[in-house]
Amino acid sequence: MIGIRKIAQEAGVSPATVSRVLNNDPSFSVSNQTKKRIKEIVEKYHYQPHANKSVNRPKSLSVLVITTHSLENEAHDPYFIQVHDGIIQEASKEGIQVKGFIRFPNKDFQFADVKKYDGIIVAGVFTEEFYAELYQNNPRLILIDETRYFSQYDIIRNSYFEETQAILDHFLKNKITDIGFLGGNIQPMSLTGIAPDSYQDIRAKAYLMWMKAHQLTPNLVIKGWTPKDGFEGMNSLLKNHLQLVLIASDQLAVGAYRAIKQHGLTVPQNIHVISYNDSEIAAYMTPSLSSINPSSVAMGQLAVRRLVQRIINPDEVPVHINLPAKITWRESSKLIN
């Protein structure tokens, strides 16, 4: 019976390339000509990839999901619920068992325990030391929502940076130049709790770089991530005359809306508001909130697919995948939509 290696040899490509073409791996870039050549050889030998699935991977895979988000946090920020839903949906579709789901901090966690799983998906941000220890015990590791650069890991992230700058370009064309930003820093999780060191969020970084590139004065307020932080942060921003404010999450925007109202201002007539995450609450705020959708379900789904490829081909070069984020325009920026 012909196998992937024979097909690869005849096509003049690696077995990994054949595997990823046959599995329709969306993270893999290959020319249409190569795809066509591989598929012609597959048809020539009547190769059935599903019938030969055992050649590619074990019949049953067990996956561990590690997250920084408590049930309480997920209730307030459905972004990560959607990421987790994507993981579960794709795992079920592929016949993969999510054997463990660990929320941090977790004092009982032992790194050696991850060796019993076929692979690990991490949703949320941990310290570099945590990743390194995890990888040492199980190198079949996929990170979701990690914006820092790590060459040794597969990473699935959204394109908040690019979408932020595209939206700012849109507003600039409409003569909007007095722009503020309200957000928070990123605090990585460690084994025992939130690490003391934080770093700048990618959304704030995109805003600051864009403002500098266009020689505009930034108005940046960094607080926490609660509605209260949104209220206090917006009160600080409104000391300046602003035409537009970018707010780093819909939860922050809830508090920010209240501050805007107390200042006697109206959205969007006096100030335009754009937020991030595009949670269900955004559509029901008054006025409804324009918000950037991060493709969170797709991030979870793609993480599972990428993990399968990592298990099949453990020596492949790690890939970093940016899924497109896209704004949902609503009333808070209706006048210049």
**Unreliably modeled segments:** 50-55
CATH architecture of the largest domain: 3-Layer(aba) Sandwich
In whole angstroms, the N-to-C terminal distance is 59 Å
Count the beta strands.
12
Give a written overview of the molecule:
- The protein is of the alpha/beta class.
- It folds into 3 domains: 4-56, 434 Repressor (Amino-terminal Domain) (Orthogonal Bundle); 62-157 and 296-323, Response regulator (Rossmann fold, 3-Layer(aba) Sandwich), CATH 3.40.50.2300; 160-294 and 327-336, Rossmann fold, CATH 3.40.50.2300.
- It contains 13 helices and 12 strands.
- The protein has helices at residues 4-11, 15-22, 32-44, 53-56, 71-76, 79-93, 128-137, 160-173, 202-213, 227-237, 250-262, 280-284, 296-312, and strands at residues 62-67, 97-103, 119-123, 141-144, 154-158, 179-184, 219-223, 244-247, 272-276, 290-293, 320-323, 326-328.
- The strands form 2 sheets. A 6-stranded parallel β-sheet has the order 2-1-3-4-5-11, with helices on one face.
- Strand 9 (272-276), helix 12 and strand 10 form a beta-alpha-beta unit.
- Helix 1 crosses helix 3 (32-44).
- The chain is globular and about 75 Å long.
- The chain starts with a helix and ends in a 9-residue tail after the last strand.
- The relative contact order is 0.14.
- Mean pLDDT is 90; it is low at 50-55.
- One of its GO terms (molecular function) is transcription cis-regulatory region binding.
- This is LacI family DNA-binding transcriptional regulator.
- Residues 2-58 form the HTH lacI-type domain.
- Pfam families: LacI, Peripla_BP_3.
- Keywords: DNA-binding, Transcription, Transcription regulation.
